[in-house]
């Protein structure tokens, strides 16, 4: 439930998919609850309402848990410190229901990255400030996944998102659901299916050496489900530029937001920025202070008007195309 968008926009997992999972969990003898921590600039009740999860849970008689208020526990894993909401830790069985989407920063967002929703929103925003390098951020996501590994992931690819995801892209009919006990394996299959190189998703890289054999699948062949065309994000920030080279080229490789003319001056982007790189006078579009920007895309993914375009430095544009696709 990234933010307050209706299900048809393919930004959030469709409630119909979660409804089916809830009913199956009940049939299996479980007492399901629904929980997630969206981005923290919109009231969570507003997110529940718009995404259809408030109605879904009322209809199904299921509790909708506010992870911002349920308490959390601190972890230190692989050198990263983070908090995980207690309901996610205390559940007997954690079922992960991601939407299949592109992501302007991490290329893909599927099962592994979705676990970030177990970290309370107000603390999550800081991750980008603490770990601004993409490879580092990817390892943090991998560490969160290892801390709260789901028993099952059910990915909603009935309608996915292509282009400038996770909120600024367009819906694309993919026509599948994909489920797996192993979230990494599921994401690898999604990469293959969408023709996204596996190494392009920074949170999958820490696992790649362990997944050299083909992922076993049942049901329809995943490759047969591949859409004829699928638009990866246009921004490919040094996806695979090696760390030492990235440090050397430092100021020459960046991505930043550009505020478009149709900005409604709502202020969400400025409030979502973890580094204070956007300032705003009342009623005016925000202004970017480039030196403060870490290129995290938080502003881009929260804009309700799709009024932020992420742009990249000329050097990145030159390497784009050689890195992916
Ligand atoms: S760019 Fe988007 S989020 Fe930022 S103020 Fe304008 S409309 Fe709001
Ligand atoms: S301006 Fe946008 S991309 Fe830059 S640090 Fe702030 S939220 Fe991230």
How are the secondary structure elements laid out?
Layout (H helix, E strand, L loop, with lengths): L14 H13 L5 E4 L7 H8 L1 H8 L2 E4 L5 E6 L2 E6 H5 L4 E2 L2 E5 L3 E3 L1 H4 L6 H4 L2 H4 L3 H14 L4 E11 L7 E11 L2 H12 L48 H7 L5 E5 L8 H5 L5 E2 L7 E2 L9 H5 L5 E5 L1 H6 L6
Parallel strand pairs: 1-2, 5-8, 6-8
Antiparallel strand pairs: 3-4, 6-7, 8-9, 10-13, 11-12
Helix pairs in contact: 1-3
The structure holds iron/sulfur cluster (SF4) (2 copies).
Structure explained in plain terms:
The chain is of the alpha/beta class and about 325 residues long. It has two domains: about 5-225, LarA, N-terminal domain (Rossmann fold), CATH 3.40.50.11440; about 245-320, Alpha-Beta Plaits (2-Layer Sandwich), CATH 3.30.70. It is built from 13 helices and 13 strands. It has helices at about 15-25, 45-50, 55-60, 85-90, 110-115, 120-125, 125-130, 135-145, 185-195, 245-250, 270, 300, 315-320, and strands spanning about 35, 65, 70-75, 80-85, 95, 100-105, 105-110, 150-160, 170-180, 255-260, 280, 285-290, 310. The strands form five sheets. Strands 5, 6, 7, 8 and 9 form a five-stranded mixed beta sheet that branches. It has a two-stranded parallel sheet with strand order 1-2. A hairpin with a 2-residue loop joins strand 3 and strand 4 (about 80-85). Helix 1 packs parallel to helix 3. The two termini are about 30 Å apart. Residues about 320-325 have low confidence and may be disordered. Bound molecules: iron/sulfur cluster (2 copies).
Distance between the termini: 29 Å
Percent helix: 25-40%
Average pLDDT: 91
Largest sheet: 5 strands, mixed
């Amino acid at each position: 439930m990234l933010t307050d968008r209706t299900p048809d926009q393919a930004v959030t997992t469709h409630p119909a998919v979660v409804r089916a999972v809830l009913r199956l969990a009940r049939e299996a003898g479980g007492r399901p609850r629904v929980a997630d921590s969206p981005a923290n600039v919109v009231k969570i009740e507003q997110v529940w309402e718009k995404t259809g999860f408030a109605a879904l849970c009322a209809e199904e008689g299921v509790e909708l848990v506010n992870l911002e208020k349920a308490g959390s526990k601190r972890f230190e894993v692989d050198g990263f410190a983070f908090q995980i909401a207690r309901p996610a830790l205390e559940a007997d069985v954690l079922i992960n229901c991601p939407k299949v989407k592109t992501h302007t920063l991490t290329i893909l967002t599927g099962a592994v990255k979705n676990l970030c929703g177990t970290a309370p929103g107000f603390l999550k925003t800081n991750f980008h400030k603490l770990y601004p390098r993409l490879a580092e951020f990817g390892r943090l996501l991998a560490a969160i996944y290892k801390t709260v590994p789901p028993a099952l992931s059910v990915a909603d690819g009935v309608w996915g998102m292509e282009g400038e995801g996770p909120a600024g892209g367009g819906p694309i009919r993919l026509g599948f659901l994909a489920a797996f006990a192993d979230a990494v394996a599921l994401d690898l299959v999604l990469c293959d299916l969408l023709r996204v190189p596996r190494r392009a998703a920074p949170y999958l890289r820490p696992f790649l050496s362990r997944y050299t054999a083909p992922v076993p699948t049942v049901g329809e062949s995943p490759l047969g489900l591949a859409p004829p065309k699928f638009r990866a994000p246009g921004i490919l920030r040094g996806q695979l530029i090696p760390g030492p080279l990235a440090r050397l080229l430092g100021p020459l490789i960046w991505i930043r937001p550009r505020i478009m003319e149709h900005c409604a001056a709502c202020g969400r982007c400025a409030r979502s920025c973890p580094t204070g790189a956007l300032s705003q006078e009342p009623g005016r579009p925000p202004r970017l202070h480039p030196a403060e920007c870490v290129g995290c895309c938080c502003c881009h993914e929260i804009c309700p008007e799709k009024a932020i375009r992420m742009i990249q430095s000329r050097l990145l544009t030159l390497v784009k195309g050689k890195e992916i696709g």
